[in-house]
């Protein structure tokens, strides 16, 4: 597994990838309230995010290897996707690969750009609104404080060539935006595994 987050309805979503980064071997999974695990999307490579709109109807998802941010319509009642994912944004050459992300109170998407040392902020229609530079080349994820104008950024050190002093740190950066309160997974009962669509099997204990 690589990256995960709970949606506003209390389901947990996480992306998986092959350890060697094999193209197309990554998937997106959803853990429902009863512990059932659903494989939602296949054919991805390095899955990062996801991040959700405040009402839970929009999910953003990054495939870092493809340098693509996807937007998915979600049924907040069931957690099922409505239609196929759409390309939301595709960073240009030299702009890094989209990694961890979060949505602010205005509905804008903040994305850590792996390899570029920047954070991108996108309007809900996909337009790039601004770029924040951070003092580390490999930011991995972002979080906005819900009551203060602060952006928290995690950065990588392991496996990074020529790391800086702030590689492998958590950075606290002032920004003109705030986040929403973090959501938690809300569990109910037993655990099962369901490969989307329709297949169900019990996991090994």
Automatic annotation (TrEMBL):
PANTHER family: REGUCALCIN. The active site is at 99 (proton donor/acceptor). Transmembrane segments: none annotated. Binds 1 divalent metal cation per subunit. GO terms for biological process: L-ascorbic acid biosynthetic process. Substrate binds at residues 2, 20. Residues 1-157 form the SMP-30/Gluconolactonase/LRE-like region domain. It comes from Streptomyces viridochromogenes (strain DSM 40736 / JCM 4977 / BCRC 1201 / Tue 494). Belongs to the SMP-30/CGR1 family. Keywords: Metal-binding, Zinc. It comes from the Bacteria. Its cofactor is Zn(2+). This is Calcium-binding protein. One of its GO terms (molecular function) is calcium ion binding. Pfam families: SGL. A divalent metal cation binds at residues 48, 99. Residues 78-101 are annotated as: Disordered. The keyword Zinc applies.
């Amino acid at each position: 597994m690589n990256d995960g987050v709970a949606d506003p309805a209390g389901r947990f979503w996480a992306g998986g990838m092959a350890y060697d980064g094999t193209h197309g071997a990554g998937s997106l999974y959803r853990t429902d309230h009863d512990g059932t695990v659903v494989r939602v999307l296949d054919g991805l490579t390095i899955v990062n995010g996801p991040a959700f709109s405040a009402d839970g109807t929009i999910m953003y998802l990054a495939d870092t290897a493809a340098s693509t941010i996807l937007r998915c319509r979600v049924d907040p009642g069931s957690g099922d996707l409505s239609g196929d994912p759409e390309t939301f944004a595709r960073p240009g050459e030299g702009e890094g690969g989209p990694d961890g992300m979060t949505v602010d109170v205005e509905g804008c998407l903040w994305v850590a750009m792996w390899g570029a040392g920047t954070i991108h902020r996108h309007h809900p229609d996909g337009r790039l609104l601004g770029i924040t530079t951070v003092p580390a080349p490999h930011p991995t994820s972002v979080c906005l404080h819900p009551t203060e104008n602060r952006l928290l950024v995690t950065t990588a050190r392991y496996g990074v060539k020529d790391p800086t002093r702030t590689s492998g740190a958590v950075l606290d950066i002032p920004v003109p935006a705030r986040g929403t309160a973090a959501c938690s997974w809300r569990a109910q009962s037993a655990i099962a595994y369901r490969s989307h669509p329709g297949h169900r099997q019990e996991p090994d204990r």
